[in-house]
Amino acid sequence: NANDGRGCVVLHSEGNVRYPKGNRPEAVELAVGQKVSRMVFLVAGAWTGEDGSTAAELEFHFEGGQCLYETETFALKAGVNFGNWWIGDGSMPGARLAWSVRDPRVDNKIGLWMVEWTNRQPQAQVRSVTFRSGHTMAIPALVAATGEAYRE
C-alpha cells in the first residue's frame, strides 16, 4: 500500500458477510502513555445504520497514579455517536460532523464524525486505547485521534 499502512484503520466486522476479512484487523491498540482530560476521535463507517447498535468500541487502558479501574469501554453507537461516511443530513446527537465534501461519483456528501470521550479519572495515565469492531453490519474506521493533556 502506498502509505505503508499509515492512512487510517478500517476494521473487519463479522456481521458484514459481504466483505471478507482480508487484511483488516478486528481490533488495533493505539499507544497513548499520558494523563489526559479527554480524547477526540475522527471516525466513520460503512453500512452503519442508525439503530443504536454498538458499531465499535474504544477501550481505554489505565495505569499508575490514583487508578480506580484498569479499563473503561466507550461504545460507538450507530446513529448516536458513530455515523456512516455517507453523511445524510449531517446531524447526530452524540457526535459532530468534522469534515465533509461532495462525493463526485454520486449525489451525496461523505464525511468524518468527531466523537469526544471525557476521562473520569484523569489523574491516572492512559496507557493505550483499543479500537475494536462491534461485529455488526457496520465496518468501522478510525482516521485520527488526539488528546488533551491533564493539568494537575
Key terms:
mainly beta; globular; 51% strand; 152 residues; four-stranded antiparallel beta sheet; five-stranded antiparallel beta sheet
Task: Explain the overall architecture.
The chain has 152 residues and is mainly beta. The protein has one domain. 0% of the residues lie in helices and 51% in strands. It has no helices and 9 strands. A 5-stranded antiparallel beta sheet has the order 1-9-3-7-6, with no helix packed on it. It has a 4-stranded antiparallel beta sheet with strand order 2-8-4-5, with no helix packed on it. Strand 4 and strand 5 form a beta hairpin. The radius of gyration is 16 Å and the shape is globular.
Helix-strand pattern, N to C? EEEEEEEEE
What value does the Rg take, in angstroms?
A: 16 Å
- Measured by DSSP, the beta-strand proportion falls in over 45%
Into how many domains do the coordinates divide? 1
Taking pLDDT < 50 over at least 5 consecutive residues as the criterion, the unreliable ranges are none
Kindly report how far apart the N and C termini lie. 42 Å
Number of helices: 0
Judging from the principal axes of the Cα atoms, what is the shape?
A: globular
Mean pLDDT: 91
Number of strands: 9
Class derived from helix and strand content: mainly beta
Sheet having the most strands: 5 strands, antiparallel
Q: Taking strands numbered 1, 2, ... along the chain, how are they ordered across the largest sheet? A: 1-9-3-7-6
The helicity comes to: under 10%
